[in-house]
Amino acid sequence: MRQLSEYINNDFKPFLSINSVAEIQDFFAEDSHSHFPVLDNGIYIGCISSVDVETFERSKTIADYRYALEGFFVRTTMIWLDVLEIFARNNANIVPILDETNHYIGYYEITDIIKFLNETPFLKDSGGIIVVEKSTADYSMSQITQIVESNNGNLLGVFVSQANAEKVQVTIKTTHGSINEIIQSFRRYNYEIISEHQEDDYLNTLKERSEYLDKYLNI
Question: Which secondary structure element, helix H or strand E, spans residue 44, and what is its range?
Answer without folding.
Answer: strand 43-49
